[in-house]
What we know:
The protein is mainly beta. The protein contains one helix and six strands. It has one domain (23-90). It has a four-stranded antiparallel sheet. Residues 1-17 have low confidence and may be disordered.
Amino acid sequence: MTITTSHRKRGAQPSTYPILDTPDTWRRLEADLRSQHLPHEATPEASAIYGQKYAIRARLENPAGVSADAVSVWVIRTGEEFPRFVTAYPEGSR
């Protein structure tokens, strides 16, 4: 299943992104982020109302062997000592 979104910034054309709509797809993405992104250095981003955000920029390869530069965003909430996943997106899409 896919969704199509129009990006109006800089005259970009509509892009198609897959929807992670099954438990197996989500589990695979989680495993890929843990094994492919978490070993890389996290860069502190702007502090959020809930705590400190961090971004990891690295290649992410899907099960079919296709890879792309991606950003995963994590937050360590105030009063906690462990990161929580916030979002992930293709590098350069924001």
